[in-house]
Every structure is written in structure tokens, then in C-alpha cells.
Amino acid sequence: MPEPILRVTDLKTHFRDSRTGADIRACDGVSLDLNAGEIVGLVGESGCGKSTLGRTIVGLERARSGSIRFKGQDLLALRGKTGAATRREIQYIFQDPLSSLSPRQTVGEALDEALIINGEGNRAARQARVLELLAAVSLPAQLVHRYAREMSGGQRQRVCIARALAADPKVLVCDEPVSSLDVSIRAQVMNLFLKLRDDLGMACLLIAHDLAIVRLAAQRVYVMYLGKIMEEGQSADLYGQPAHPYTQALLSAVPLTNPDDEQARRRILLSGDVPSPMNPPSGCRFRTRCPAARAVCETAPPMVQRGAGHVALCHFAADAPLGAL
């Protein structure tokens, strides 16, 4: 198989608490692969470190150790113009499109500025390219004269995606790209990511806490908890037969469309709060909230293979029936 277009290996991104001086282990040894033309989901509760991982990949946060390889090059080792040019091929979509766009710029001006930054110097060519970018995200040409405040949330997010496309990226890192949008608009934006994958061969890391939204688009899914990857697998495997107790708990909270299924399902209620990333539990980080925890969970669990491309960080993943931990 070809090498993934993006490979994150044992990445650690820690912050220093200004009051105590302790390390906040936002990402604490995370490994992740993203193939060309693939949409991969990264899910977990708020504060688990998934946004920090995305920001570290694009260079908005500094990694303490590990590697981020993009098309075979280690991004953490690149400097100067070479590093900037390479990182330009990885674009970031922020959660709130309104705060991502300048209130003083029209859509046309925002896209034109992005093209100038990316080296397009011919004004006529830029004007034509602006219209192409709008068409690529299914927006009408007349929006070039609109300001962000004059558009809907879905339109603003499409403009942000169009601005990212100005750099001709190979990878999009999307941090909760639909969480601020109306429910009726979310599926439209998710379908846009599918279209970009199919039309442009673009890879996408989709960061979200909404597992139902991720299921619409992602081919593979990583589940993150307290700075660690708990489970990874093909979307059908992970949603159909989750192997880790944390994944099972997350999925049990996703509403079902069939009322009978919703009434008959078994919800998994977790006790306690998420521990502090400054002082995570020893062994399995989920053990303080896990309904299946035992004494052995105080030691570090192995990453257990449950099927082709399906692994779980759990002592009991190899023994218990899938979906029944």
C-alpha cells in the first residue's frame, strides 16, 4: 500500500500551567494516518485533545516530541520558506465561520487576498479563480459583493472552505466544522466535503464530538480520550461493533431515528468527571470512569487487534465479545 499522505507518530503536545507549572498533556503519544482521498473522523468529548492535535498538525501549536510526516517529509523539521510552502498544502477550517472572516471584507476580497498570499499575482486571473472557488463550494457568483454578516452560517462556512481551497491543499483539517450551524444545514456541508474528496481527491481529517455527523462522511474513525487514542477502525466496524468501553458509551448516547430501537437500547452512563490532563490516571486513562474496570487496568493496556484495521486500547478487547464489554 502507498504511504499515507499524512502520518502522525507518537505526537506529544503539552502546555505549561501558568499557576502550578505542571504539564497539561493535551496530546500524549498520539499516532494517526490519513490516506490521500480519504475522510477520517476524530471524535471524543470536549477537552480530550482532538482540537490540539489538529492545531499541532497545521503548526498553530508546537509539538513537544513525535513526528508529523506529510508526503514523506517531517513537518516538525522543516523551516523557512520550504516549511511554509509545504504547510500551505494542509489547510485548517475553524469551528466558527463568522469569527474566521473579516467583517470589513467582502467575500470577493477575502478570496482575492488568499490568492495573493498563495502567489497568484495576475488580477484578471484572480477574479476568474474567485468565481471558480465559489462554484467549487456551490455558492452563486453574486456573493462576491456580500459581507459575512449578510450571509447564513452555512454560506459563511462554505466561504471559509473556498478560501482554504485557494491554496490548492491536499489535506483539510476541519475542527468541528458544522457544530455552529443549524441542523438542517449540517448535512449539506458534510456532503460538500464528500464532493471535494471525489472531485479533487482531497483528504480530510474531520474533528467532531458528534458521532452521527462523522458517520455521514468518514471512512475510518479514531476515538480519543484524555490525550490518547482509545480505538481506531473502519467506520462500519467501529459503529457496528465498538470494542472499547469508551466508544460504546459514546455511541450509546447517539439518538436513533427508529423510536422502537431508541426505547429498547441500553444506555451506558459514565460516572465521575473526566480527569485532569495535568494528572491523568495511571494505566488505562479511562479506568476511573469505566464500568468494566478491574485491578489490571491500573497497568498500561496494549493496543489489541480486533479485525482488519480495527484496534482498541483495552486489556479485555481480545476476550470480550465485540459490542458487549
Automatic annotation (TrEMBL):
Name the family the entry cites. Belongs to the ABC transporter superfamily.
Q: Name one GO biological process term.
A: transmembrane transport
Does the keyword section mention Transit peptide?
Answer: no
- SMART domains hit by this protein: AAA
- Compartment(s): Cell inner membrane
Can you supply one Gene Ontology CC term for this chain's record? plasma membrane
- Boundaries of every ABC transporter domain copy: 6-251
Q: Which domain of life is it from?
A: Bacteria
Please give the PANTHER family that the UniProt record associates with this protein. Answer: D,D-DIPEPTIDE TRANSPORT ATP-BINDING PROTEIN DDPF-RELATED, TRANSPORT ATP-BINDING PROTEIN
Keyword entries, A-Z:
ATP-binding, Nucleotide-binding, Transport
* Name of the protein in its database record: ABC transporter ATP-binding protein
* InterPro entries assigned to the protein according to its UniProt record, in alphabetical order: AAA+_ATPase, ABC_transp_ATP-bind, ABC_transporter-like_ATP-bd, ABC_transporter-like_CS, Oligopep_ABC_C, P-loop_NTPase
UniProt key word Nucleotide-binding: yes
Q: Which GO terms describe its molecular function?
A: ATP binding; ATP hydrolysis activity
Q: How does it sit in the membrane?
A: Peripheral membrane protein
